[in-house]
Amino acid sequence: MHPSHPISADTVRVESGSSYPEPFNSRMGSADWRALGEHFGLSQFGFNLETLQPGDQSSARHWHSLADELIYMLEGELTLNTNDGAFSMRPGMCIGFRAGERNAHHLVNQSQAPARFLVVGSRVPGDTAFYPDDDLAWLQTEAGWHAVHKDGRAYPKSTSAGR
Questions:
Q1: For the region Disordered, what residue ranges are annotated (predicted)?
Q2: Distance between CA atoms of 58 and 68, rounded to whole angstroms?
């Protein structure tokens, strides 16, 4: 049963770690997130409240074949790395990435303080996430998400919970 009344986002269970296989998992740091969309049973889009500590990164630089993404900064300062360069992201700033647009991106906390942001992403069956800087892709099948090398070989399953 999912709540049918407003709640404080800070009451949603905190998740941490990543589902990346090594050698990528250890690059992510100790970031955490609250899966707000899942808390309410939403199925058409994900909605996460994420916190990056100094030195953390949100993900490896990636783009999605079928899913849109939107990032909205709440607190702190992050560096957004895209195909077009590095950009500072501060509270109130936002950016969107259209499905199929090959503008690989991720956020890195290069500051000395934690930073919080919202991520909204569509959930489209058959989406693939591509990582141009790494030998990695995530394929979505009926059985879930699977990390694979660019030649299609599967990575061993990660034991971490993940974003």
A1: 1-23
A2: 16
The Cα 110–Cα 114 span in angstroms is 10
Query: Which among 117, 129, 115 has a CA at the least distance from the CA of 63?
Result: 129
Q: Between 1.10.10.60, 3.40.50.1100, 2.60.120.10, 1.10.260.40, what CATH number should domain 12-148 receive?
A: 2.60.120.10
Residues 6+ apart with CB under 8 A from 65: 99, 100, 126, 127, 128, 129, 130
Q: What is the pLDDT of residues 67-122, one digit of tens each?
A: 999 999 999 999 999 999 999 999 999 999 999 999 999 999 999 999 999 999 99
Closest by alpha carbon to 161, among 20, 9, 13?
Answer: 20
Entry pTM: 0.90
46-85 core/surface letters (b: 16 or more CB in 10 A; e: else): bbbbbbbeeebbbbbbbbbbebbbebebeebbbbbbeeee
